[in-house]
Write a structure and sequence with these properties.
By secondary structure, the chain is an alpha+beta fold. The chain has eleven helices and eleven strands. The chain has two domains: 319 residues, no CATH class; 56 residues, no CATH class. Strand 9, helix 6 and strand 10 form a beta-alpha-beta unit. Helix 5 packs antiparallel against helix 8. The C terminus is likely disordered.
Length: 382
Amino acid sequence: MKIKLVDVDNRLSIKYSKQDDVYAWGADNAYPSLVKTLVNSSVTAKQCVDLNSKYIYGKGFEFTQNVTNKNSLIVNRRGLNINQLLRIVSREFSEQNNVFLHVNYNALYEVTSVDLLSSEDLRIGRADSTGYSGKFVDYDNWDKSKSKKIEKKDFNIIDRYNALPAIIEAQVQAAGGWNKYKGQILHITADFNELYSLSDVDSVLYDADSEYQASVFKNSGLRKGFFGAKLFVTKPFTDDMERRDFEKTINDLKGSENSSGVLLLESNEASDTLSEQFVIQNIDSNIDDKQFESSEQSSARNIRKAFGVPSILIEDGDNSIFGQSGELLKEAKKTHWENKEEERSIITDAFELLFSNFHATINPTNNWKITPIIQTIQSTNE
């Protein structure tokens, strides 16, 4: 895995790329891929994304709790029900602070399918003279991981969301009919003032990378360093055959996985003293855990702050601080649930917007509240 961190001032440079006909997402147009790579390689960042997505999703939509026929909740061609769509949308939003929802219609201009498209693949197309960008480009190689060349012939051009029947009809006609129409994209962001929102990990990209690099360094030390290595000092061998026989014997003693390294030194002269003719010494490990402890703790703390996650919710070591108080843990969960209210509101507003025009009745109560992870504790007076 290679992680390339661009300059802080330029990593989310949003400029129109005339060559690709899109607004580039980051200096190299691969910002979402950078975010995903860093989150998945940093244990703390991944914990934070996982936790925040759970506190957005909660236990799913309240109206689904008493639905016996789950097939009535299917919302797209992949066969996902509305809670499953909410779950993956919550994860994407927690990681990227951007969500792209692909919407399809029937000839009655009703929504027939809603699905999530990856932020890694979506880019905003060029704007018209009024500054309005009416197209999105769906493409799976912006980060050039599959090919070093951007192939415009593989671009999938999709219209921006607009549910007005006249707009949909015009888009259908421009596409060449319903059988060629690709639907629309609804783009929701944490910051509606920006074309693309920054991820929560953005301010701590280097801390997330530091966690990854520290684990790589320690692993390399174990695999290629002096950890568990032996130094053999022998008297001079009489010929190459004797030397090869000795080396074979040593290799046989190293174990089935050859976990320990061996450094063989051959003396220039023979000696009558046995201890000088054959010596075995351990080579001390060059890994010092304390060397990383402070920097790793600092990185983890910064990452938690960036994602707004209370340490008690993800750090086992905090028992020494908080003790075994279940009340403190419960209060932390309630506080974090309240802190994620804005994110839940952004997502549920989008779901209500799209599914209020769904071709089948999904939510007859029109209640789009999400079931909390823990129920609010009522006071003893109630």
